[in-house]
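Attaching the record inline, Q. Sequence:
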Amino acid sequence: MMTDKKSGYVAIIGRPNVGKSTLINALIGEKVTIVTSKPQTTVQNILGILNDDDSQIILVDTPGLVSNKQIASQYKTYNKSVVDALSSSDVIVMLSEANKWTKTDEYLLDQIKAQSMPSIHVVNKVDRFKDKTKILDSLKDHSHLDIFSDVIPVSAKYQKNLDALLAVIKGHLPNKHLDFDDKASTDQDLHFRISEALRERLMENLNDELPYKFDCVIETLEDKEKVFLIEMAILVNKQAHKKIIIGKQGQLLKRIGSQARAEIEKILGRQVYLSTYIKVVKPGQRK
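Structure, as predicted:
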């Protein structure tokens, strides 16, 4: 392992759907964490690893933190993942949305204040505003800015101003042994990434009908040199959920499978034959 590189963990935190996963994928240069328009898409801390000539930046994608007490009780595990990421990181990046500040953002500030580490405020989605001075004026209205070392406006979607963000992050990182191989881009294994590709397509296609309590499980994965043969099961709680996912004459499941296959081929870099089926399994019976 090299010892002369800047290296450390960077917790990316923010309320649901503010663009955390999009930012990490843009920084890494490949999809290491799924992105959908649904809240709570990320359900556990996922690491994206950015390697360059002088650093290894380990980006921790966290679930969107929720502050409402009733909602927070439902997502207690998600919030614990966020707090754990904060306490074990070298740098905190708080992501907010341009010209939109909520009670959840205020709650996040309280979490950051409890930590004694460098913090950066990244204002995302600035591409939505032609007049950037309005964004800067809005930022000046917030008295909390003194807790951050820097405030950086970006567009994760269009990869704008990301170099400036990386330069600031590197300035806060220590020189130390690398925790991961310098060719790694994530800590997640192939099985997890393949399962997540199917989960992403399910979440995007099912809209408000989505049965959130489902799992995607790889039953078989065979490497046939030129092609991968993959069979996956979608585990749901109820027969009604199974019918929703199948859709009329099986067309919805077919479309989801086709989209997931395309994503999996990008991950594996090879042709994939993907078959999927749905199985009703009570949560307590899942392994």
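The two ends are 36 Å apart (CA to CA). The chain has two domains: 5-176, 190-285.

More tomorrow.
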